[in-house]
Amino acid sequence: MDPTQVSAEDQQIISDAREVAEDAETGTGGFNEQIEAAGGKNSDKGKALQVGKIKNKVLKLQLEILDLQMKQAKGDDQTEKIAEEQKKLQSNIDQDTAAAGQKSASVASTFKESA
Q: Biased-composition ranges for Polar residues (predicted)?
C-alpha cells in the first residue's frame, strides 16, 4: 500500500476503527472493566480476557501506526510517534506470542461503543 494514495475517506475509516479498538479496551463493557469484574487478570476468566485484550491492543496499535504513516505521507511528520507506537506494538506482539494456545475471551457481548 502506498500511503500517499489513501483517500481521506479511507484514512477516516482506519482512524475510526482504531478508536473502536481503543473503546473496546477502555470503554463501557470493555476489557479493562470486564477484567476487573472477573476478579482481576489472575482469575481464570480474567486471564482469558487479558489474552483477548492483548490481541485487541495489537489490532489497535497496527491501526494507529497505519494512520500515522498515512499522515506522515501527506507531510505531517509523525516519525517519533510512529517509533513510539511500534515499540508498544512489538511489546504486545511478544505478549501475544507468549500467550499462544491459551484461552482467550472477547468483550463482544458486553462492549458498548461510545458515540
A: 103-115
Q: Measure the CA–CA gap between 24 and 110, rounded to whole angstroms.
A: 9
Which grid coordinates belong to 109? 457481548
Comparing C-alpha atoms, which of 37, 46, 26 is closest to residue 111? Answer: 26
Separation between Cα atoms, residue 42 and residue 86, nearest integer Å: 27
| Alpha-carbon span 60 to 64, nearest angstrom | 6
* Contacts with 51 (C-beta within 8 Å, 6 or more apart), sequence order: 96, 99, 102, 103, 104, 105
**Predicted structure pTM score:** 0.91
SS3 27: coil
Contact 54, 95 (CB under 8 A): yes
pLDDT digit string (tens) for 42-86? 999 999 999 999 999 999 999 999 999 999 999 999 999 999 999
- What whole-number distance in Å separates Cα of residue 60 and Cα of residue 21? 5
